[in-house]
Amino acid sequence: MDKRPIGVFDSGLGGLSTVRAMKKLLPNEDIIYFGDTGRVPYGTRSKETVETYAAQDIKFLRSFSCKMIVAACGTVSTAAADVLSRIDEPSTGITKPSAKAAAEATKNNVIGVMGTSATVNSGAFDNEIHALSPDAKIISVSCPLLVSLVESNWIDIDDEVTNAAVRRYIAPIIEGGADTIILGCTHFPILAPIIQKNAGNGVTLIDSGLAEAQYVKNVLEEKDMQNDLNHAGVQRFFVSDKTQNFCDVANILLSEDISDSCEFVDIFKVI
Ligand code: DGL
Fold it and tell me: Tens of pLDDT along 144-174?
């Protein structure tokens, strides 16, 4: 048994898709979440900048003696994977768990990947998928605007602007015949109903947050690091900009009011 919390981070709100899944799959675990809302987006920045930010975010989480560090951010998972691999604690990003879920789900071996520019440029999903399924055809599209739309809370299934943006981004994936799409940025599972509506029901969406949470569960079980099964997991949220917008979206996504457990942290003082 290990009672320490799990540290989860993202550039902003996206990692809540991992937290949402962790709350279901790992109800006994305490979670410390850091959303770097003061510096979002990460996905349009250079690899070097993403690596620097990721190292700082991890340093903040490690101050809580976390038993595992979870990069709930596709951009960090792909463009800054080395930073994550250098820490002592068990850690994961979304790449491996999502690639495995996609390789298992596809029937025609054509897989779409929606990610940020940094993620698509890294080629990390292509490498992971091809390691599992060398003949897979992969159609990757960077969808930077979708990050801002989520951060702006434009997530309603009928939102005209978000639907139009989704339609335009997924067109090459659908035209290419993909039967499976990896939501390779953790902001995108928040838009899953809109993406599904536009992609059609014949397409399987891989929720990177869910795939990652399942992976975390497996690691804790294998290493015998689960929390006390009688403990009800508690979440604390930290953000590097004002809390209001983060809480507005988090309250919808997590179906609970997190305002009292969300605090501002001056990341520049921590690092
Ligand atoms: N949620 C992020 C990701 O998974 C970050 C998007 C961004 O900050 O650009 O890539």
Answer: 999 999 989 999 999 999 999 999 999 999 9
pLDDT above 90 for 251 = yes
Say how many Å lie between the CA of residue 130 and the centre of ligand 1: 23
Query: What is the distance between the alpha carbons of residues 63 and 66, in angstroms, rounded to a whole number?
Result: 8
| Three-state secondary structure call for residue 231 | coil
Q: Which atom of ligand 1 is nearest to the CA of 115?
A: 10
pTM: 0.95
Helix (H) or strand (E) holding 9: strand 6-10
Active site residues: 73, 185
CB 186 within 8 A of CB 10: yes
78-134 confidence digits (pLDDT tens): 999 999 999 999 999 999 999 999 999 999 999 999 999 999 999 999 999 999 999
Q: What angle do CA 39, 41, 43 make, to 5 degrees?
A: 130
For atom 2 of ligand 1, which residue has the closest CA? Answer: 73
Q: Per residue in 199-237, is it b (16+ CB within 10 Å) or e — as a string?
A: beeebbbbbbbbbbbbbbbebbeeeebbbeeeeeeebeb
Atom number of ligand 1 nearest to Cα 186: 4
Average pLDDT over residues 184-197: 96
Confirm or reject: Cβ of 187 under 6 Å from ligand 1. yes
* Atom number in ligand 1 closest to CA 10: 1
Q: Could you tell me the distance, in angstroms and rounded to a whole number, from the CA of residue 135 to the centre of ligand 1? A: 28
Distance of CA 269 to the CA centre of its chain: 25
**Does 208 contact ligand 1 (Cβ within 6 A)?**
no
Residue 169 CA to ligand 1 centre (angstroms): 16
139 within ligand 1 shell (Cβ under 6 A): no
Length of the chain counted residue by residue: 271
